Amino acid sequence: MHSNVTHWTPEELWRAYVQLTEAAAAFRAHKPDLQIRPVWHHREDLVGAHILVCFLAYL
């Protein structure tokens, strides 16, 4: 596995990757219920806001 994060151990990188895949799977499962379409953001603050809203919706 390759990453730009250099200070994590391989175990920490793997744990982060597994969490990412679990979050992506949960989001895919809930997209039809939430009626979410692909959204393409061009500003970093909007990307963060979109992730926050998706995470709150998942909870």
Describe the structure.
By secondary structure, this protein is an all-alpha fold. The protein has one domain (10-58). Helix content is 68%, strand content 0%. The protein has 2 helices and no strands. The chain has helices at 10-34, 44-58. Helix 1 (10-34) packs across helix 2 (44-58). The radius of gyration is 14 Å and the shape is globular.
Kindly list the characteristics that best describe this protein:
59 residues, mainly alpha, 2 helices, globular
- Portion of residues in beta strands equals under 5%
Low-confidence stretches: none
Shape: globular
Indicate the radius of gyration in whole angstroms.
Answer: 14 Å
Helical segment tally? 2
Distance between the termini: 29 Å
Secondary-structure class? mainly alpha
Helix percentage range: 55-70%
Number of strands: 0
Characterize the biggest β-sheet: none
Question: Topology, please?
Answer:
Elements: H1 10-34, H2 44-58
Helix pairs in contact: 1-2
Q: Quick summary of this structure?
A:
The chain is mostly helical and about 60 residues long. The protein has helices spanning about 10-35, 45-59. The mean pLDDT is about 80.
